[in-house]
Amino acid sequence: MSKVSWYGALVITLGLALPTGALAQRRGSRKPPPPPPVAEVSPIDVQALSGPDLELAAKAAETLGQIASEPAHEALLDALALGLPPAVAVPTIEALAMQPAPGDVAMLRRYARHRTPSVRSAALGALASYPSPEAQQAISDGLRDLVGSVRTAAASAAARGRVRTAVDELMILLARGEDSSARALGAMADHELAKQLTEQLGKAPDAQLARALGTLLLRDDFGPDTAKVEIVRTLAKIQDPVAVTELTDYINATPKRPVRASRQEAAGVVEARTGGAR
Amino acid sequence: MRRAALALVAVLAACGPKNVFRLSQDENNAYALKEVLARRKLPAAPAPINGWAKPRVFALAAGAPRSIVAYDLEASAVLWQVEADVQSRIWVGGDFIVDIEGGRLVARDQARGTLRWKVPLAGELVGVAADRERAYVVTQRGMTWQLSAHEGASGKQVWTADANGQLGAPVAQGGIVYVPYLRQWMSLVDARTGDMLTRIRGIDEQISALRATSQVVYYGSRQGVFRLDERSARGARADATYGHVPIPPQLDRTSYARDAYDPVQLGYSASDRARVLFSSEPTTTGPMKLTGNGYAIHYFRYVFGFDTAGAMQWAYSNPRADFVASEHTGSVLVGLSTSGEIVAIDPVTGAVRGKQSLGLTVPVLGGTFDADGWAPSATAGEQPPVATIPALVHIARDRDARFGGVKELAVATLAKMQGATVTGELLAVLADERAPQKLKDTVVALLVARKDPASLGVLAKELEVKPDYLARTEPEHLGAIAKAIAGLEGARLPPADVAPVVAALAFHLEAPSTQNPDVIRVIAALAAIGGPTERAALASHFLLYRVDDDRGDDPAWQQAIVTALATKGGAQERAMLRYAAADPRTRPGIVQLVRETLGD
Fold first, then answer.
1. Å between A230 CA and nearest CA of chain B
2. Do the beta carbons of residue B49 and residue B214 sit within 8 Å?
3. What was the ipTM of the complex prediction?
4. CB-nearest partner of B576 from A6, A86, A115
């Protein structure tokens, strides 16, 4: 029996998708990617990707990832389906996500449960590029990982993919003092979530809550300024020095003109807390 | 002159010690034994020794000084309690009790507890017995042992009988004193005169343990016991009324009766807490016939009922306190606990037939029952048959660290019972953080061995526990559960029940936190019960890790996954294995194993 025969059966059984026409199904909610560079898929790269030389294989993965063509994408998926050593799996996953196609999700979910933490982290990071519920569920699951670095990767992915369904998990991690979840919550918070965060005062650890709110303050897409004023006022109530650091970062990142009440209040708080020593 | 000297020697010889026990004596004489047995004065029905024929227990309570508590089981009332520095067991006579206090044999009035007499011991104490009229004491001085009889009323010594070889602690019954001699003989001595009536020699069994009820005498050793009857004259197990019961190895401290040669057992000791409780029927042929075709073992806090084949029929676990004394009265098993509680148990069903209390606030050190034939009245609060599974579960999960062996017996017995409830209870033992590892290992082995299809649901439920940092959960004993599931290979399992188990196993197979030893068991479980449905998960797993220089190099993992795919898989899986074997990235051990397994 040829490889194709059993491989095809395996792919179907596993629910993995062969990348036929997959590139045409890119996510529509984001702005279109830049025109792909025109390049041919080199058989040498394809062979090297599945070869015994790990360095060459990793390099081949990077090269194939740059090529926005179906054969290149298929080569990457093929290699992942047949199994790769962790040192090659990580760049291959990253290469795959450079040209995301919906059919990738099942494969990435498989690697999101790989026993090697760096492979899981890479897969979770890659899944942030896929807006499907399955991908978001995998990211939420990643927040439950027993390894901290993987949770951190999942939190970053949740932030990058704006995975709203992961908020509950992130809030628990915030309460347990995980910085990555604080940053993620700050990065994805809307008004409702921002209110939820301010209500965590006295409940979540001060430093992590300050980081979440500080990250939120720095976002241009969060507003209006009255909303930021509320955030500044909450930060003012946090005694941990991190609050001052976050407010300072906000002041430094915000132009003086036009005058913003949030910046003024932040400056006042920092002045009061540092006695002008900033 | 010479004639006078000879006469003096003759007189001195007549007045000297009466050497009753000798190496060369008539023994195993069927006629003599029949005569002696016939002259015994035994009650028509089992009855207490005491003159009132009232069932009683005499307990020794801790304290400074200690105290004796006399308790009437029929009236459920304390008769009396007196302070006494008792340094031995208590032996019960007709209207008196005796014990050792201050190095002397002390008798007390059984009705009131008042001191009746004290006599010094003739040497180092070996044992004591009592019947309605007298107390009998065996002592040792140098290389001479002496049995002496004392009037129960006055303490007056009425006769002595000497031996140049070792005597053991006696028992008395029906006008005969039974005395073990040099571990090989049991001498039957006239209780009134001290004369040797006959003796029995154990041909293929030591005689080191004795027990007397009001009607029967048992003798033997830790290996088994004879019921004294006319066939005892034959001396050998095969020809006599001999019995021995299967004693689980976990209860190996158990004995049939007190060891007559163990000085420790002159007092109440741990040996009183591990005893075979039985009664027997008269028989003229074959081995000993146990009453109710069963027996019980009292082992500290626990009492187990067995059939004659040794299969456990019931179990009773006494809350908190050990039984320090126990007896088979012929009708019930009765135990006295360290907390002063008296529990009567039905020997057939294990049901509690009654409970009474001495009402003490100090621990009970030991006790002597004089309650042959006693059973609580029907109004004493009979309870339904003991619920054996909960009792065994209670034993298995007992916090008391002394009873590792008993716990193993409990789980082994549980494992023989069918049903999901039992599996759940066994798994609960595994989940118990304080359960000893050896017990958990036993539970795992038993889970595997029991092959109970009804357990699948319970095992599946355990698989629902997933590694989750947020929920703070991690699967416990995944390997054990998988092993138990693998044990169901070949069992008829409803496909609808199997599917979720396969899915759960597949989840754990791919869970990053599942370590190799557990992964290997999960693979075996999937291969055992999965049918074709597990192949995709196994194939994916194989491809993912065949090139991994950690898991992929584990020979046990290699063996498990390659065997599962090669033997349980189809043509596609074997083609995949061949592809992997030809791929230079596949770990060398796998390549070799695939080639060996597929014969390529």
1. 30
2. yes
3. 0.89
4. A6
